[in-house]
Design brief:
It contains 8 helices and no strands. It is mostly helical. α1 packs across α2, α2 runs parallel beside α6 and α5 packs antiparallel against α6. It is globular and about 45 Å long. Bound molecules: zinc ion. The site of zinc ion has 5 residues, from α6. Zinc ion (ZN) binds next to α6.
Length: 191
């Protein structure tokens, strides 16, 4: 999937989880940092390819991207597995603990979950593509939904832009409208 589809998928997943299990209150710093962490988590697994937006925005990102891609085993390898998810999750937890003193009253637990939801949404979305994802590495088996490869979609092609992206947009909008009371209550709780 492309970066913008992953961005929207991460956001829609976060909205869905908040609808199911809304926090009683939220601070402005928690809200903003959660949205940022969610978007980073949504595209982070693709840092294993030099063309990833993450590397493109750095001056010599291409070189770093290629080096990191090789270290990570190439595109759609460890960063697209449960093992990679666990390592990244621990790493992000350590980062939040380190940054704790400057994060003030921000709810680091909520921010961590927003990040993990972004990561999981990335693996889920990539599983709809022909390449699938090697979820159980080191077992090199690529999982896909549906299991029959011919029925899956190709990244960046029409089905993604004309069907998947609009469906995610409709899902996020529907969730907002159907649970608007919860979101209004949550926004009123911002302090
Ligand atoms: Zn990916």
């Amino acid at each position: 999937m492309t970066g913008r589809t992953h961005d929207l998928a991460a956001f829609t997943s976060l909205v869905a989880v908040v609808c199911l299990n809304p926090p009683a209150t939220i601070s402005l710093s928690t809200l903003l940092l959660s949205l940022l962490a969610n978007q980073i988590g949504g595209v982070l697994p693709d840092i294993d390819q030099p063309t990833a937006p993450f590397w493109r925005n750095l001056p010599i990102g291409n070189i770093f991207g290629r080096t990191f891609g090789k270290l990570a085993g190439g595109h759609r390898f460890i960063t697209h597995s449960v093992l990679g998810l666990a390592i990244t999750g621990f790493g992000f937890q350590a980062l939040l603990t380190f940054l704790g003193p400057i994060l003030g009253h921000a709810d680091t637990g909520f921010i961590w979950w927003a990040f993990i939801i972004g990561l999981i949404s990335h693996l889920l979305m990539d599983s709809f593509t022909k390449e699938g994802v090697p979820l159980l590495l080191p077992i090199p088996w690529h999982f896909g939904i549906p299991p029959l490869k011919a029925l899956r979609i190709t990244t960046g092609k029409k089905v993604e832009g004309l069907i998947v992206f609009p469906l995610l947009f409709i899902a996020a909008t529907t969730l907002f409208i159907s649970h608007h009371g919860r979101f209004i209550t949550l926004l009123h709780s911002i302090r």
